[in-house]
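Hi there,

I know you've been waiting on this one. I reran it after we fixed the sequence typo, so this is the corrected version. Both the input and the resulting structure follow.
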Amino acid sequence: MFCCGRSSGPSKALKLGARGKEVDNFVDKLKSEGENIILPSSGKRPSEVSKVLPPPVNMESVHLRVEEKISLTCGRDGGLQNMEVLGMITLRVSEDKSGRIRLHVHNDDKKGLQLQTHPNVDKKLFTAESLIGLKNPEKSFPLNNDVGVLKWRLQTTDESFIPLTINCWPSESGSGCDVNIEYELQEEGLELNDVVISIPVPSGVGAPLIGDLDGEYRHDSRRNVLEWCLPVIDAKNKTGSLEFSIAGQPNDFFPVHVSFVSKRNYCDIQISKVTLVDSDSPVRFSLETSFVVDKYEIL
């Protein structure tokens, strides 16, 4: 496996944490395949060495999570076969004094979402005023429990809704295939992080010859995958491309899979404020927002 940018550079090393005989044998095998191996001196496990944790959220007594996941399937010649976005707002209250509250929902949806409140939430209040509160306002939300209070669903085959389009164009040449793959961010309000576009490549024919490239790439010869890696895709770099050549047939380069994470949600639903039921006084709250991939493939 190797990773580089536009020009050839040193490979990114594989890190291993254990030191047993089996690991030594495994390391020898990897070295024989041309891998660059670094063994950390500490006794930490590989996941502890390599995993970079996000900064912790400073959680208030009212904590909210707005979470979405997308499942999308496109055809290689165009056409959105199916796209589904599932979202949920989850509430966690950690102090009694913050239990009798209402959540003010900012809903600027223009995509045609299907919304559903929790059975204990006052649906009429939500429909009329975009407020999430319990049917019995004298009751409090459960303490120290994650409660899903609102969920939504978007299902479409409208191509204009695709957040990130991927076009993969393999062209047969005398020695194999020249492949041009490009992306375009259609939903410019999004910022996608840790984007990986995975293209299958034929086995036993050597590494692909990389041409023009935005971002970085990794060739995993054991999994027969070329991974195109982009730290950030946003409105400032909404398009990009990768070109490579390798022996093979056009069908060898599908399906293409995409993964990313985002701290901005796809659907325009957020919590604008939280207030007490009796006094309508504002309550401090913390908020986490995430938009992740369940499945994203070009067949």
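Quick highlight: The helical segments are 21-32, 46-50, 123-129.

Best,
R. S.
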